[in-house]
Design goal:
Blueprint: E1 8-11, H1 13-19, H2 27-39, E2 44-49, H3 62-69, E3 75-79, H4 83-90, E4 96-102, H5 105-112, H6 116-132, E5 136-142, E6 146-147, E7 151-152, H7 155-167, E8 172-177, H8 184-197, E9 202-207, H9 214-223, E10 228-231, H10 251-260, H11 269-279, H12 290-297
Parallel strand pairs: 1-2, 1-10, 2-3, 3-4, 4-5, 5-8, 8-9, 9-10
Antiparallel strand pairs: 6-7
Helix pairs in contact: 2-3, 2-11, 7-8, 8-9
Bound molecules: 3-hydroxy-3-methylglutaryl-coenzyme A (HMG) and magnesium ion (MG).
Magnesium ion binds next to loops.
């Protein structure tokens, strides 16, 4: 089996994990969650997003979160969908921005109120501006496998959107199974294609775990040469505009699987579990990751 020696975990719990929570998670709890995640060894993280508070009320405290949680020893991302969002980012010390567009136009209309083509045209000058200002740019490619509205996505369409983002300056692609519908063969096939066509681009896989296939998909992506994975502590998450999608794959389950196979992550599972303890009382559904359930039983 082809396994990397190490993998990089990009923790998305504070952003993807919390954005879908109906009850507002207190800002101080979010800050403590982020701090403890960093203490567990996480070196890259999506802290929050500068989106419309009317569309995603949970992210309304983005500026406060960023002002309190940026550190020099980690790459801290924030999401921004448009120029308005970027103006808010420029007021902070954050130096890494994630933009997001789906392959499917119907999904984009529901998520950002634009077609794929319009979103790309609007983002092109903004990405140039970010690069001129020295920002690291991550492009999140939603509905890379399936769309909740349009169904199966042609891998060639995903490849062409990924290529476009690389052409206009993205440093990293985070390629997402937004609704958790892909299987390991599809994961292997798409990431083999993307790694072959875009060998010099940082390639990250982002799996939601709706059908409990995310760990299998991660293994298949490792076989295809991927060594960066977006994961969410406690398996929290989901996109408010992707009906049926549940949380991201749980960070602790990915770390456990990797470390058991001798693949190093640099993350301390006990400290990670204590980070989940902080946010758990505010989460409206049970935390069902295998690793965390055993941690709680043995407490
Ligand atoms: P819109 O309504 O078309 O925007 O929304 P607009 O330009 O017409 O502005 C409407 C109002 O929003 C105005 O305020 C603007 O000022 C304000 P008003 O005059 O009505 O008081 N506004 C903003 N406020 C704060 N920050 C901003 C901003 N922009 C406008 N950046 C918009 C367009 C993109 C803003 C909206 O659709 C939006 O916020 N969408 C958020 C979508 C989102 O956060 N989705 C989840 C993240 S993506 C994801 O989860 C997928 C991912 O995990 C990968 C995967 O799994 O697939 C990354
Ligand atoms: Mg997501």
């Amino acid at each position: 089996m082809k396994l990397p020696e190490t993998i990089t975990i990009i923790e998305v719990g504070p952003r993807d994990g919390l954005q879908n929570e109906k009850n507002f998670v207190p800002t101080d709890t979010k800050k403590e969650f982020i701090l403890r995640l960093k203490e567990s060894g996480i070196k890259e993280m999506e802290l929050t997003s500068f989106v419309s508070p009317k569309w995603v009320p949970q992210m309304q405290d983005a500026s406060d979160i960023v002002d309190s949680c940026l550190t020099d020893d980690s790459r801290d991302f924030v999401l921004a969908p448009n120029e308005f969002g970027l103006r808010r980012v420029y007021e902070t010390g954050c130096k890494a921005v994630a933009v997001f567009v789906g392959v499917s136009s119907t999904f984009n209309q529901r998520n950002i109120n634009k077609t794929t083509q319009d979103a790309l045209s609007d983002l092109e000058p903004l990405i140039s501006q970010l690069k001129e200002r020295g920002y690291f740019v991550r492009a999140c490619i939603s509905t890379a496998f399936y769309c909740p509205y349009e169904g199966k996505i042609d891998p060639e369409d995903t490849l062409s959107l990924c290529k476009k983002f690389v052409e206009i300056g993205a440093d990293e692609l985070s390629v997402a199974d937004t609704v958790g519908r892909a299987n390991p063969l599809e994961a292997y096939t798409l990431f083999t294609l993307l790694k072959k066509e875009l060998p010099d681009t940082l390639m990250t896989a982002h799996f939601h775990d709706t059908r409990k296939l995310a760990l299998a998909n991660i293994l298949a992506s490792m076989e295809a040469g991927v060594d960066r994975f977006d994961t969410s502590a406690g398996g929290l998450g989901g996109c408010p505009f992707a009906p049926g999608a549940t949380g991201n794959v749980a960070t602790e389950d990915v770390v456990f699987m990797a470390e058991e196979m001798g693949v190093s992550t640099g993350i301390d599972l006990d400290k990670l579990s204590r980070a989940i303890d902080v946010v758990k009382p505010h989460i409206s559904r049970p935390i069902e990751s295998g690793y965390y359930r055993l941690y709680e039983l043995n407490k």
